[in-house]
Design a protein that fits this description.
Blueprint lengths: L6 E4 L3 H27 L4 H19 L9 E4 L4 E2 L19 E3 L4 E8 L12 H18 L5 E9 L6 E13 L2 E10 L4 E10 L2 H10 L8
Parallel strand pairs: 1-2
Antiparallel strand pairs: 2-3, 4-5, 5-7, 6-9, 7-8, 8-9
This protein binds Palmitoyl-CoA.
Length: 225
């Protein structure tokens, strides 16, 4: 079986990538504000109706020219990764947390400090358990990649020990051990004061199609954000 996705290589300069990160990043941040304002606004119904009409007009302007479906991941010839759609870190995805993951390639670790707000609520005032899993999946995957053994999430097991209040928090993950093509990653989610609220373990597997590709080409596995 071949790879279930393609990686296009595009002829874009660093300046062009910087410009799209700047322009689309600003749009994404603005839409995120809109998302939170949509949830929390207390303006009257007539104003809500008027804003809805304006939002629909703006949406139609963006819809005039769109890629056919999902964004995928592409690279520039200079090696820049364009994974703008990723559900956790994608810079053009207003539903992304957002999250900046710092990879430590020397020690096979990854970490992120971020803020979860009313859009991420599960129990009142607390982070939704599924959002925790979403964030940890990304940070864990990046720890496996930072450790030199990237893979798809095979299993992710979480233990929710304490509630995680909405607000600032952090996540950290590290490669615990390797077992052939499987990388076992451990890590945790913490409140702003450092209290650990969730511990987890993930098994990241270099998939069969990647193993076959590497065996064929002697290359390194593809990466995606
Ligand atoms: C290079 C490609 C990726 C690049 C990555 C770059 C990362 C750059 C950072 C990005 C960070 C993103 C982080 C988000 C990452 C997602 O969100 S990935 C999306 C969610 N995960 C999926 O969709 C995976 C779906 N499942 C699959 O594709 C396949 O079942 C798997 C997991 C790749 C395994 O398939 P396979 O390669 O055909 O495995 P197979 O040969 O049957 O078994 C190999 C070994 O793994 C074990 N195994 C198989 N399935 C499992 C499982 N689910 N759990 C535990 N063990 C298992 C088998 O028992 C076997 O063990 P041994 O007998 O060798 O001891």
């Amino acid at each position: 079986m071949g790879a279930p996705f393609n990686y296009d290589v595009l002829d874009l300069t660093d300046e062009q990538v910087d410009a799209e990160v700047r322009v689309f990043g600003a749009l994404t941040a603005a839409v995120r504000r809109l998302n939170e304002a949509t949830l929390r606004t207390t303006v009257d119904h007539a104003t809500v109706e008027e804003v809805r009409r304006q939002v629909e007009e703006l949406t139609a302007r963006l819809e005039k020219s769109m890629i056919p479906d999902n964004f995928g991941v592409s690279f520039t010839k200079g090696g820049r990764i364009r994974g703008y759609g990723n559900a956790v870190v994608g810079i053009r995805n207003p539903n992304a947390v957002p999250l900046t993951v710092v990879q430590d390639k020397v020690n096979g670790r990854a970490s992120a400090e971020f803020e979860l707000n009313a859009l991420h609520e599960g129990p009142p005032g607390q982070v939704h358990g599924g959002v925790v899993a979403l964030v940890l999946d990304q940070v864990f995957g990046e720890a496996a990649a930072a450790g030199g053994s990237p893979g798809m999430t095979g299993t992710l097991t979480l233990r929710y020990r304490l509630n995680t209040p909405l607000g600032p928090c952090s996540a950290e993950a590290w490669v615990d051990r390797r077992d052939g093509i499987k990388t076992i990653v451990k890590g945790e989610l913490r409140r702003a004061d450092g209290t650990v609220t969730v511990t987890a373990e993930g098994i990241f597997i270099l998939p069969r199609w990647a193993r076959e590709e590497i065996a064929k080409n002697g290359g390194t596995p593809p990466q995606f954000e």
